[in-house]
Amino acid sequence: MDRQLMPLHGMRLCDQAITRTGRNESAASCGNAIRACNTVARRQCGLTLLEALIALLVLAVGLLGFMGLQVRGLAYNHDAYVRSMATVLAHDMIERVRMARANSPNEAALTQIYDAFTAGVAAGAVCQPMVAAPNHAARVAGEKICWEAQVQATLPAGMARIERRAGVNAGSPLDDIFTITIEWRDRTAPNGQPVTQVWEFQP
């Protein structure tokens, strides 16, 4: 057999066979060596491709897991943003109520203002500038319409309500206690359940 057609490993096995057995048996020994080399090569055929496919599979699983973490991270970041916006809206209304109390001339006017804060907003009410409102209570009613519209526009499926109850001195509005409740739809909550936050304060 021509040594130029032998694989390198077969040539080495041939040389080793010649050294052990001598020149007379070199042809048979070389043939056996080449057959052994071909058998090993056939057994190893395709191993490189299989290893590459396994590596790609592991990489794909890792990338899918990373993408899932990214999606969850974005959802939690959005939830934190929505919660912060709900807090900002609630404190905005708290400051409005406190300013209304500070600017109220007497308890009777304060009662009307508080009633405007806690009154329900009519369906289809539109936020409009209340610069020329006839009195403070009418301006407060307009501000509440705008505030609730802002809640609905800022929070997903946002809803808000303001409630009032008597304090220690039931005969005076100065001791009244307010409760602000804001609800919205949370994407990270199980089954899309609404999230509710409550703020209670005394002006």
Q: How would you summarize the topology of this molecule?
A:
Layout (H helix, E strand, L loop, with lengths): L7 H14 L4 H19 L2 H57 L3 H12 L17 H19 L4 E7 L11 E9 L8 E8 L2
Helix pairs in contact: 1-2, 3-5, 4-5
Summarize the structure in words.
By secondary structure, the protein is mostly helical. 60% of the residues lie in helices and 12% in strands. It contains five helices and three strands, in the order αααααβββ. It has helices at 8-21, 26-44, 47-103, 107-118, 136-154, and strands at residues 159-165, 177-185, 194-201. A three-stranded antiparallel beta sheet has the order 1-2-3. Strand 2 and strand 3 (194-201) form a beta hairpin. The longest helix has 57 residues, at 47-103. The model is unreliable at 1-10 and 21-25 (pLDDT under 50).
- Element pattern in H and E: HHHHHEEE
Helix content: 55-70%
Shape: elongated
- Annotation, overall tally of beta strands: 3
Uncertain segments: 1-10, 21-25
Query: Which band does the percent of strand residues land in?
Result: 5-15%
Query: What's the number of helices?
Result: 5
Taking the alpha carbons of the first and last residues, their distance comes to: 105 Å
Q: What does the radius of gyration come to? A: 41 Å
Query: What's the average pLDDT?
Result: 76
- Sketch the major β-sheet: 3 strands, antiparallel
